[in-house]
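Translate sequence into structure tokens.
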Amino acid sequence: MGAKTTAAEPASAATRPTKFEMIVRRILSLALTLAVMALLIAALALVAIPKLLGGMSLTIVSGSMEPGIDPGDVVVTWGVDESNWNDFAIGQVITFLPFPDDPALVTHRIVGKIISSNGAVFYETRGDANEDLDPWGPVEASHVRGAFAYVVPKMGWFRQWAGGENTPAIVLAAAAGLIVYGLALFALGLRRAPTPEAAADESAETAAAGPAADGEDQSEGVAAGSAAAAGSCSEGAAENGSEGGGESGEVVGAGSEGAAQGGSARTAAGGIG
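Result follows.
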């Protein structure tokens, strides 16, 4: 019987990633995708959309508008100019200059609207968390700088940490870097993927090794079965022959003994007569 041989493992199997590596790649790919999406959404919410609205994005530093707007949130506003600064109604949230000579902006809710005899419009404002009206009194409509559009929770802390005015550039640069990194990983994966020719060669080698191994296993099984059957037949014949011979000897012996006894009886009978 020939020695058992095993087909050589295809060369492409050595470079095939393990199951653990595939899981790690999927997790990293998912994390990268989520990070890119988060940065793109942040860039849109804090940079692109305010520009489209003609407004701005402001970090809230006090709790005067809680619970709707918390410290660290970013408020995005619509643009305001002389064509619409008189049109705001009670209940709207606006961003304004409380003092003409102070650039600090405040975002509070309109709780009263005053129209003077000459047609000038003033807004009484108050923070949602405050009980009293704002101490600076009615705000002239021309001091309004924006109307509340939406709020982005807690992004103000990130913007302050990232450098305030440099945030748009940082966010866009980080998003671009992540996109480039993702494309590089994708290209690397395509490069490591087996070509159709390599896959065909591997399939052919597997198909050639499979029947050979199956045929050898079947031959070994048939040989072993034949040997076992032959041994069983020989043992059965030996046992049957031994037992049969012994019984035959006993029968012959019994016959001889009977014959001897019969002869003696006949002799004795002859003597009497």
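Note: Residues 202 and 211 are 15 Å apart (CA to CA).
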